Amino acid sequence: MNLRTALLSLLLAALPLTSQAWWNKDWTQRSRITLDTSAAGTNTTEALVSVPLALRLHGGNFDFIAAREDGGDLRVLAADDKTPLPFRIERFDPVNELAVLWVLVPAVAPGTDKNTVHVYSGNANAAAETGTATGLDAATRAAFHFTAADGSDASGALKPATPPVLVNDGLLGGALKLGGSALVWPMAEALRTPADGSLSVSMWLKADAVANGTLWQQGPASLALQAGKLQARVGRAQLTGGEVKPGAWTHLALTLGGGKAVLYVDGVAMGQSDVPTPAIEGEMRLGEGLTGALDELQLAATVRPAAWLALASATQGIGGKGLKGQMETEGAPDGGGVGHFSILFDNLTTDAWVVIIILMVMFVIAVWVMVKKSVEVSRADKDNQSFLGRFRAASKDLLTLDQGATHPYSPLYRLYQAGQRELAKRQIGESGESGESGAKALSGVSMNAVKAAVDADLVRESHSLNSGMVLLTIAISGGPFLGLLGTVVGVMITFAAIAAAGDVNVNAIAPGIAAALLATVAGLAVAIPALFGYNYLASRIKNVSADMQIFVDEFITRVAEEYGGKS
Questions:
Q1: What single string gives the DSSP state of each residue in 42-86?
Q2: How confident is the model over 67-126, as pLDDT tens digits?
Q3: Buried-state track 312-330, b at ≥16 Cβ within 10 A, e below 16
Q4: In which region does residue 338 sit, left (phi positive, over 0), alpha (psi from -120 to 50) or beta (all else)?
Q5: Which residue among 205, 248, 251, 407 is least crowded, i.e. fewest CB within 10 A of its CB?
Q6: What is the band of 298 on the pLDDT scale with cuts at 50, 70, 90?
Q7: What gap in Å lies between CA 221 and CA 284, rounded to an integer?
């Protein structure tokens, strides 16, 4: 069992167990993706059927470690956890923990957060999906994701006359780089729209500057930018839509059918005109006169409803508005195993694990020191009180307190024994000079020598009491700095991975940042208990040290009274 498994097991032990449905126990991981169509999400007010949904998977909602490196064990099921859904993997990058799936959802209910699909993984022996599913509906004639090097559509049948220039930092994956020259696709049956037929053209555009040029053109129909404003031409009719801002991804669409043409910008209708659909055929041209990037060009033989385009704009856009994901483990409590902690542990980078392991060792050492010193100080205080009572009650038998009782944990008793040894060296208690006790009298020099010996033992006892306390000060001062180091390095690695992957959205960044902050939390979790323990122990040790200093003075004074020389 590795460290992460052990930590997750401890967290699971603290959670209540509940039952849950599971499609197939051969798959150990499941990501539950929910589409919120309420006002808090995409605010969809119309029921939709056969909706191609772009699902972004990242370290926060999908366990890339459990999945196969090529994503071949992925399966997508409907909300009933029984019905397989057709899907297509557009992108699967386990190194940077980013993936994009196109899933054909049979129905999307409006105004609810119960639209759910399940993405299963974690079966190394699963046969790779070899079907021809595209994750698109039957009305889609062509969908260009711009991930294929030859610029072909999802079916692989429609290819441009010349190879395109693609970039990796598209909205969902790859994208077509616009360099000012038109990219041309020869005429194909899939691109033909009959007179009075229906057509919907949608795409994502990121223009480099306020531009003039043609986005899409086929026969008598086109989409263009004029001074940054969207314009469409259908036969002799012309429509003007909303403004397209440079440097930002914008969803653009044109629908033709039913004697009407409508322009959309970011899912909002910006212009319309009553115009019959002319026959649209011939070659298709993209990006003439424009610079920037174009992604997700889709052509459909139907008039996409406004709600459909608004949903596409919201869910495909940066961050995937309305889409929420949660990882779950087979056999774990419903609700994603260990929930947020699972996300944090799954996204910890190697350097963060190293820092956290060091902090865990520091925590164990700090706890061991606090327990050991607490027991030691408590025993010392108890034995001190016991011996001090006997010492203060003694009169003529001051140097015989070691007879009949022991005080193994008392520093005061050990100081008394040190003084007793020094007095024995000077034959105190044996016959000698005259005195009431018949004992040999001590000179002033001898008394100073005895006190010096006892003081030396007092210093040793103080060192013993304070031994190990430096480990607590290291935990207090070093723990937060180690945690901060792990966080800073983790954040750097997260941003570097996002920059390399070209997918900048909060869902991709948040898990890595949250996991990196776990190192700082671990540092504080070490320092705070160590701080409280240090202050408590320091106070107790200070009291014992004060008792020792008082006892030395009291002992030397008693000895001087009993055995000192007479003036």
A1: T---S-EEEEEEEEEEETTT--TTTS-TT-TT-EEE-TTSSSB--
A2: 888 888 999 999 888 889 999 998 888 888 888 999 999 999 998 888 999 999 988 888
A3: bbbbbbbbbbbbbbbbbbb
A4: alpha
A5: 248
A6: very high
A7: 10
Beta bridge partners of 260: 257, 274
Residues 471-503 pLDDT 10s: 999 999 999 999 899 888 888 887 777 776 665
Strand partners of residue 77: 84, 118
Question: Which residue's entry shows tokens 């036969």?
Answer: 235
Whether residue 521 contacts residue 483, with contact meaning beta carbons closer than 8 Å, is answered with yes
Q: How far apart are alpha carbons 503 and 318 in whole angstroms?
A: 9
Stretch (H or E) spanning 352: helix 350-393
Quote the CA–CA distance of 533 and 473 in Å, as a whole number. Answer: 10
Question: Dihedrals φ, ψ of 544, to 5°?
Answer: -65, -40
Rounded CA Rg of the chain: 40
User: Which residues have CB under 8 Å from 81's CB, separation 6+?
Assistant: 21, 22, 23, 118
Burial grade of 557 (CB within 10 A; 0-12, 13-18, 19 or more): exposed
For 140-301, CATH gives 2.60.120.200
Domain segments of the chain as ranges: 21-137+306-330, 140-301, 347-567
pLDDT at 445 over 90: no
> Which residue type is seen at 132?
T
Q: Which of 416, 434, 412 is nearest to 424 (CA)?
A: 416
Report residue 407 CA to chain centroid gap: 54
- Picking from 108-112, 358-362, 411-415, 505-509, which range would have the lowest pLDDT averaged per residue? 505-509
Pairing of strands 260-265, 250-257: antiparallel
The DSSP bridge partners found for residue 166 are 176
Q: Are 294 and 208 in contact (CB under 8 A)?
A: no
Q: What are phi and psi of 209, to 5 degrees?
A: -155, 170
Type and span of the H or E element at 340:
helix 340-346
**Ramachandran assignment for 322, one of left (phi > 0), alpha (psi -120 to 50 degrees), beta (any other):** left
Most confidently modeled range among 10-24, 161-175, 362-376: 362-376
The DSSP code for 7 is: H
Backbone angles phi, psi at 3, to 5 degrees: -65, -40
316 near 298, Cβ under 8 Å?
no
Joined tokens for residue 514: 């949250």
User: To which residue do tokens 């889709």 refer?
Assistant: 298
Picking from 367, 486, 511, 399, the residue whose alpha carbon sits closest to that of residue 62 is 511
Q: Which amino acid is at 350?
A: T
Q: Where are the beta strands (DSSP E) in 175-249?
A: 175-179, 183-185, 199-207, 213-218, 221-226, 229-234, 237-243
Q: How many residues does the chain have?
A: 567
Instruction: Provide the 3-class DSSP secondary structure of residue 56.
Output: strand
What is the per-residue burial (b if ≥16 Cβ within 10 Å, else e) of 158-176? bbbeeebebeebbbbbbbb
CA-CA distance, 566 to 93, in Å (whole number)? 95
Higher pLDDT, 221 or 339: 221
Q: Is 128 helix (H, G, I), strand (E, B) or coil?
A: coil
How many Å from the N-terminal Cα to the C-terminal Cα in the chain? Answer: 79
Tokens of 519: 């190192």
